[in-house]
Specification:
single chain, 172 residues, alpha+beta, two-stranded antiparallel sheet
Length: 172
Amino acid sequence: KELVEGLKISVDDLSLMINNMLNFSMLVSQNMKPDNDELNIKDFLQSIKKVIQIKTDNAKIRLEFILPEDLPEKIIADSKKITQVIYNLVDHAIRYTPSGGKIVMEMGIDTVDKQAQLFLKTSYSGRALTITQIKELMEENKILETIKNDSNETDKQQLALAIVSKLVKILR
């Protein structure tokens, strides 16, 4: 069972890296659009929680996963892009949270202009980015430099967060 869980994490990590690179090229060319399908949100989030729990357990980090009781049964959403956003955020939080630390993932629904929107709030007990670093993540030229250069691990993490930012804009 432990080997299968490890294999699942490895496949998910590889898939995430490949999706990040593919999505980035599509994001730069402005060709990405959401694929909206009907989604059982509670089942979807619970399956994501299982994978995240394995990753945080392996890193010896506590996970608090908060889902409100009033989530609708089904929503129209792009499950692949939402999954990629969540996995990138969790991967970033795991990298910067020390062993024994804590990651909190809170999800819910907000109503904006009579339309329900899924929200995700992530916090962790590790090192955070500065406001300047966050603003840089939004600059496409900075992102392109990161890919072209022999980037270090920090740059790769910032690339993942820049992709999250772009995906969230597409999903709105």
